[in-house]
Amino acid sequence: MRATVIYGAGDVRVETVPDPKLLEPTDAIVSVVRSCICGSDLWPYASMKRSERGRRIGHEFLGLVEETGADVTTVGKGDLVVAPFVFSDNTCQYCQEGLHTSCEHGGNWGTKDVDGGQGEAVRVPQADGTLVKLPHTEDDDLLASYLTLSDVFSTGHHCATTAGVNERKTVTVIGDGAVGLSAVLAAKRLGAEQIFLMGRHQARTDLGREFGATDVVAERGEEGIAKVLELTSGQGTHTVLECVGTKPAFEMGLGVVRAGGTLSRVGVPQYEEGPIGPALFRRNVTITGGVAPARHYIPELLVDVLDGKYQPGKVFDRTIGLEAVPEGYRAMADREALKVLVK
Amino acid sequence: MRATVIYGAGDVRVETVPDPKLLEPTDAIVSVVRSCICGSDLWPYASMKRSERGRRIGHEFLGLVEETGADVTTVGKGDLVVAPFVFSDNTCQYCQEGLHTSCEHGGNWGTKDVDGGQGEAVRVPQADGTLVKLPHTEDDDLLASYLTLSDVFSTGHHCATTAGVNERKTVTVIGDGAVGLSAVLAAKRLGAEQIFLMGRHQARTDLGREFGATDVVAERGEEGIAKVLELTSGQGTHTVLECVGTKPAFEMGLGVVRAGGTLSRVGVPQYEEGPIGPALFRRNVTITGGVAPARHYIPELLVDVLDGKYQPGKVFDRTIGLEAVPEGYRAMADREALKVLVK
C-alpha cells in the first residue's frame, strides 16, 4: 500500500510500504477514508533529525473496517470507524478513569508494526478499545467533522474541560491554529459567554468568531497581556486555554489568567522549565491540561456533531489526495493552510 | 508595647514599639493572647538582608478585641477572635469566591501601620472581614488548636482541598513540618484512606501517624520516589501535597504523582522556574495550590476543632513567652522545635 514516511526536517514522502496484517486477535485492519495533517506533525517536519529508514507518520484517521482479529467484538467488516490519536484498551484502570492516553496497553500510531494514519490502511491494535463506530455517510462536511474527533476537537474539548470552563467563567484562548479554534468551539459548547481569542491571522480568527469568540486580540506578548487585562478590569480571565505549546505562549497565558484561575495547556510544551515561582503561587493559579484522552470524549462529542449543532470540521481549509501529502505539509508549515484534510 | 522586630538573617529582637491605635473606622485593636512562629518566618530568618530599621514580623495570632472603629459591626470589645494570616474585606469579588488572599482591600501583617502578630497587640484593618469570633476558653490545648486556623491547619486544608483529596484518592504528603503534618490531618479529615508521609524526623512522623498517615517514607529524592512507586504498584498517588517549597521537594512530588493526578503546593516556592515540560504534559499532571485563603476555611474548620474531633494544635511542641521569641526562632531553625507557640 501507499503511506507517508518522514525522513527528517522538510522531507516527507509517500511510498509503497507493506500492507498491514492482523498480528494479534485484538487487532483490526482499517482502510483509511479520511486522514489529516496535525499541527504537532509540523514539529518533526521542522526539526526531525535525518533518518535513513524514516518513520511512518499521521495519527488522525477514520475509515472502514476491513478485517478483525478473533477477539474483536465491537466492530466488524464494513463499519465506519474513527480512531483517536493514540490506541488504548478502554478497560484498564486509567481508561476507566477517562485517561486513555495513559492506557497500560496503549501506544502511538506510526510505531513498530503499527501504521501511521497518513496512508491507505492501518493495523489497529486494541481495536475494541480504540475504534468508535460512526453512522455511515458520504457527506464530506460530516466526514470532516467526524475526523476532528480523532484529535483536534477532542483536544480543544480537553483543554476547555480541564480548565473548568462553564457559563460563569471567562475564557482566553491562545492560538488561532486548528486546536485553538477547536478550543473556542469547545468553550462555547460548555457555555462560556465571553471568549477572547488571541491570534493574528484574520481568516482564522474569523472562523474563531464563527465558533464563538466574542473578542479577538491580535497583539502578542506584553501588549497582548495588556489588552486582555484592559478588557477584564485588570483581572484577566478565569480560564486560559493555551493551544500553542511555546514558552512565550505559556508566559502570555500566565499574564492573562485571573487570580484563582486555571491555565490549561494542550499544545505540546516546547520547553522543559517554566515560570512557576512565587508570583504564580501568590495568585493561586492552577496549571493543568496535557495530552487529550480523545477516546474518552468521542462518544459525548459525536452526539453534538451528528446533530449538526457543531461543525468542527470547518477547521479544514484544504483537501488533498494521499500523493499530495508532502505538499500539504509544506502548505501548513508556510501557514498557507490552517489544516489539511487527506481524502 | 513590646513586639518582635527582625533586622536581618539570624537577628530577631523583642523591642518596645508604639502602641497600635485605630486609624480607620473599619479597624480593630486586638491584644494578642496567643501567637506563634511560622516555618515561612524562617526564610527571612535565614536570608533577610540586614535592615537598619528592621521590620515587624508574625502573621498568626488570636486575642481579645480591645477597641473597634465606628464601622465595625461583627466583633466588639472583649470578643476572642482569630486572625487569618492576611487581612481581607470579605466582601470583594475575590473574597466572595473564597480567595481572600487576593482581596482587593487586603494585605499583610507587619507592614506600614499594621502590626505583626508576634507582639502584645495588633491594629487589624478590615476587622469585620478579617476576624472570626471564637467561643471563649482558657483551655491551652483548645487555644492552640484555634491558633492553627490562622495559618497552618488552614494551609494544610487548602493543600488537600485544591489537590482534590477525597475517600477515593491516595495521598502523598511531602514534608514533616507543621504544615505537612496539618496537611496529613486535613487529608484524613477529607476521607483519605491511604496517606504516605515523606519525612525523616521521627518525633514528627509519629505525630503524622497520629494525624492519619498510613505509611512513612523516610527516603528522599530518587530513593523516596522509588519507595512511593513501590508502594503504589508503580503508579504513584492521585494527589501530592507539597508542603516544603524547595525545588527538590517539588521534583520529588512530580516523581510520585500518578498520571492524571494533582500536585498541590503550599510551601512558598523557593525557585522561579520548574520542570513543567513534555514529561508532565504527557501524564496530564495538574499543578495547583498557592497561598491559602485561611479566612475562607476558618468557619468550616472551627466546627471540627470545637468538636474536639481534630486537634491540630498538637503541632506546637514548645511554648514560650514573648520575650523569648528570638530563642524560639533559633529552636525552630535548628529543628529542635517543630512549631513554637508564644503565650
Please state the average pLDDT score of chain A.
97
DSSP strand tally of chain A: 19
Report, as a whole number of angstroms, the end-to-end distance of chain A.
Answer: 15 Å
SS content category of chain A = alpha/beta
β-strand percent of chain A reads: 25-35%
Tell me which protein chains meet in the greatest interface and how many residues each side has: A-B, 32 and 32 residues
Low-confidence stretches of chain A: none
Radius of gyration computed on alpha carbons of chain A: 20 Å
What is the share of helical residues of chain A?
25-40%
State the shape of chain A: globular
What is the oligomeric state here? homodimer
Give the biggest sheet of chain A.
Answer: 7 strands, mixed
Number of helices of chain A: 12
Give an account of the 3D structure.
The structure is a homodimer of 343-residue chains. Chain A is an alpha/beta fold and 343 residues long. Chain A has twelve helices and 19 strands. In chain A, strands 3, 5, 6, 9, 10, 18 and 19 form a seven-stranded mixed sheet that branches. Chain A has a six-stranded parallel sheet with strand order 13-12-11-14-15-17, sandwiched between helices. Chain A has a three-stranded antiparallel sheet with strand order 2-1-4. In chain A, helix 8 packs parallel to helix 9 (247-256). The longest helix of chain A has 13 residues, at 294-306. Chain A starts with a strand and ends with a strand. The mean pLDDT of chain A is 97. Chain A binds chain B through residues 94, 97, 99, 101-102, 162, 259-260, 265, 268-269, 271-278, 280-291, 293, and chain B through 94, 97, 99, 101-102, 162, 259-260, 265, 268-269, 271-278, 280-291, 293.
